[in-house]
UniProtKB/TrEMBL annotation:
Residues 386-398 have a biased composition (Pro residues). Residues 1-20 form the signal peptide. Transmembrane segments: none annotated. Residues 411-420 have a biased composition (Basic residues). The lineage of its organism: Eukaryota, Fungi, Dikarya, Basidiomycota, Agaricomycotina. Pfam families: DUF1996. Keywords: Signal. Residues 38-254 form the DUF1996 domain. This is DUF1996 domain-containing protein. Residues 312-342, 367-420 are annotated as: Disordered. InterPro entries: DUF1996. It comes from Kwoniella bestiolae CBS 10118. Residues 324-342, 367-385 have a biased composition (Low complexity).
Length: 420
């Protein structure tokens, strides 16, 4: 049986004025790793569910900024993007209890720029809650998870569409855009927050607890959805067949200072797919060579059947399908792993689900906007135990520029109309 696919690229947008929205697209040729790994939530261990991971080939069960930079290659068409980005693996229910893996092959990420602060070395972030089974439109962390059924009326919705999507199913999540200025990670991704008022992506004021504006990272995944619609057929790897539990993870691997140059280049980097025409990036453009990039260490892939060669009888990690109900309670849980159903998103933040913390490093004065095998590794059906929370203060960051780069309304309209 054929494996369904979706295409992957990454859109990075720099808002330069109300009338012009400079942006460029970084494409990814393939997923570097598809496995039960999550270095943010289950560092050094096996995570509770399967993720599709793109970016640096040096991806490991534990994240280290320098290790990311040392990757031999990247799935990105820009050779210096050594970040890693991942989301839960999508499956499709078949008859007789079988599940078909929907293979990833494109993601878009985007971000507007006004007065910004760089993603510091070691930055990690989460957006979304994998075990959310209800929806509150007034909570920005919940509203930030959306789906668009391309080829229909393209209206964003917050659960799986109740129809097939002739021009792809687009699953998307917007990350928090406000930072505490001190930490690269806090338990539950509490070092970042959504704006204190307005839509999650409207560029509203940052709360006093998180006063520093950071680029608004946006994941956008396109799935081939050209099949006869069957109710409740789509299911994320954690068992969510409703759709509220879509989520994204990010670990920074961009070199310091590069995005200062990109912001300085302004509209000359409004090149869409023509990255070779953006002066700061032209020498790093590699076309589709990222399609052949493989993990530096194949043993990062957990040795288990996840559906890459054919249908599976159950979700890897023994995750029960919710069947439209509550997420099951599972031990050792946290965002990205096998979390308890009672996990609730933090007010204004990415999620309040428990997750390991890590030391902060000093942020540089620059703007950085990341885009979006087999092994002998031991198999476990339980998420790794999280270490106790910790944080290390960093020196106060300095903005890249004091100039405001336009309004956010035009960015959002253009982003929603972007369907490539």
């Amino acid at each position: 049986m054929s494996i369904l696919t979706f295409s992957l690229s990454s859109l990075i947008l720099f808002l330069a004025s109300v009338s012009a929205d400079p942006f460029f697209v970084v494409q990814h040729g393939n997923a570097i790793v598809t496995s039960r790994r999550d270095p943010i939530i289950s560092p050094g261990g096996v995570s509770g569910h399967v993720h599709s991971i793109v970016g640096s080939s040096s991806f490991k069960p534990s994240y280290d900024y320098q290790n990311s930079l040392n990757g031999k290659c990247t799935s990105a068409s820009v050779s210096v993007d050594k970040s890693n980005y991942w989301v839960p693996q999508l499956y499709r229910k078949l008859g007789e209890g079988k599940l078909e893996l929907v293979k990833m092959n494109r993601v878009n990420t985007s971000s507007p720029i006004e007065q910004m602060y760089e993603f510091p070395k070691g930055r990690k972030m989460l957006a979304g809650n994998p075990f959310r089974n209800t929806f509150d439109a007034n909570d920005p962390a919940q509203a930030a998870v959306e789906y668009v059924c391309l080829g229909t009326d393209d209206t964003p919705m917050n659960a799986f569409p109740e129809r097939s999507c002739p021009d792809d199913l687009r699953a998307q999540v917007t990350f928090p855009s406000c930072w505490d200025g001190k930490n690269v990670w806090l338990e539950g991704s509490k070092h970042v927050s959504y704006p204190s008022s307005g839509r999650f992506d409207a560029g509203g004021p940052c709360p006093a607890t998180h006063p520093y504006r950071i680029p608004t990272l946006f994941f956008e995944y396109h799935f081939n959805d050209k099949y006869t619609y069957t109710p409740d057929a789509r299911v994320w790897a954690q068992g969510d067949d409703i759709g509220y539990g879509f989520h994204g993870d990010f670990t920074n691997g961009w070199p310091e200072g590069l995005f200062t140059q990109i912001v300085g280049a302004g509209e000359s980097c409004a090149v869409l797919f023509e990255i070779a025409n953006c002066p700061p990036l032209s020498k790093y453009f590699t076309g589709d060579r990222g399609a052949t990039c493989q993990p530096d260490d194949p043993s990062v892939v957990v040795n288990e059947e996840i559906g890459l060669t054919g249908p599976v009888a159950k979700l890897p990690g023994d995750n029960p399908i919710w069947n439209g109900g509550a997420a099951p309670n599972k031990p050792g849980g946290s965002a990205g792993g096998a979390a308890a159903a009672s996990a609730v998103p933090a007010s204004g933040g990415a999620s309040s689900v428990a997750a390991p913390a890590s030391a902060a490093s000093s942020p540089a004065a620059a703007v950085a906007v990341p885009p979006a095998g087999s092994s002998a590794a031991p198999v476990s059906n339980a998420a790794a135990s999280a270490p106790p929370p910790a944080s290390v203060p960093a020196p106060a960051p300095a903005p890249t520029t004091s100039a405001r780069y336009g309004g956010w309304g035009g960015w959002r309209k253009r982003r929603l109309n972007y369907q490539h």
